[in-house]
Every structure is written in C-alpha cells, then in structure tokens.
Amino acid sequence: MYIPRHFEERDAQRLLSLMSRHSFAVLVTVGEDGAPFATHLPFLVERDAAGDVRLLAHMALPNPQWRGFSAERDALVIFQGPHAYVSPRWYATTQQVPTWNYATVHAYGRPQVVTSRDETLRILRESTASYEPDNATAWRMEQAEERVARLLGGIVAFELRVTRLEGKFKLSQNKGPEDREGVIAALEQGGQPGDVELAALMRACTPEAG
Known about the structure:
Blueprint: H1 12-21, E1 24-30, E2 36-42, E3 44-47, E4 53-60, E5 75-86, E6 99-113, H2 117-131, H3 145-151, E7 155-170, H4 177-188, H5 195-204
Antiparallel strand pairs: 1-2, 1-5, 3-4, 4-7, 5-6, 6-7
C-alpha cells in the first residue's frame, strides 16, 4: 500500500497489538487467472518462540479460496483499526480541509492448510477463548463437543506465516501540535464507535512520543 513516510508505523509490538485487537480481517488471494478473491475472517494472531508471527483461521469447506492457496504466491491479510472522519472545524488553524484518520496493518505470507485435527481444534478453541469473557460465564468448546465434531468436516483451518508487515497509521502526524490536539479533543468527545480508541492511538503516536 502507499505509505507516506510520516504515516509509516514500524513498531512491531504496536502493529501486533492492532492486529490482535481488530482481528476480524480480510484475506485476499489472487488465483491463477489473475482475479483477486477476498474472505472476511476472524484471525488468531500468534508469535512463536523465534518471534515469527503466525495468523490462524478457518473457513467453510465450500469456500473455493483455500483451494487456490499456493506456495508460489503471497496472500494479503488486511487488519483495519480505528478510523474516523476529521472535520476542518477541529483544527486550530484555518484554511484546512476534511480528511480521514485511520490505522491499518497489511500482513503478507503464504497460507497453508492445516491437516491436523488436533491443531484445527486448538485453533477453534483458542480463537473462541480470545473473544469470550475471561470469567465463569464464558462459553467453552467442550460444552458442544458432539456438534463441534460433526462440524469439523465442513471447515478448513489454515495458517499463514507472516513474511512482511506494513503499517500505516494516518494520525495527523503532518499537522502542528495545536491542530493535532484539536482533533484528539474532538474525537474524545465523539459519539462514533472507535473515536476514543483513535484519539488514544493519536496520543501514543505523536512525533514527540516516537
């Protein structure tokens, strides 16, 4: 993707944090015919002992996308973080125009089908656990073992070892401190989902904060 220098985010921990928090992402592959294909999926984001990042997910067996996985072609997974419209009214200086602030991560790698039943179950179990509350009311896969066993034949689990991460955090880094503070203050009072999270990310990613 196009990333102007002042919007480029290279901090791996910050990128992984966004991926884990906004884990419902888009898997994009290109078939032998050159046509792109996209599927919207929740991903489990893992880092192994060597520090390598793995993305784990599953899709319906009738979905043709997994049949096109290739060891010769990269796939792209797009994680969309918080985003919001930015009004010129929020700036301290005049003669401004509207824009859109956002944070996104693109992960590249070559997906492979998971053939192990135990690994497939682990992916399902840990993916579910990542969304359920961490208390006694949480739903556990063991509560529906028989149904899960029947449904296993209708899904395909896969993993993608990330070979490259691109982060674009467009957070008004090209504006002056007063203008940035005006945008942050407006977002903190905003009523749209993600406004407060975007404001917090802007504070964390100020040029002064590195």
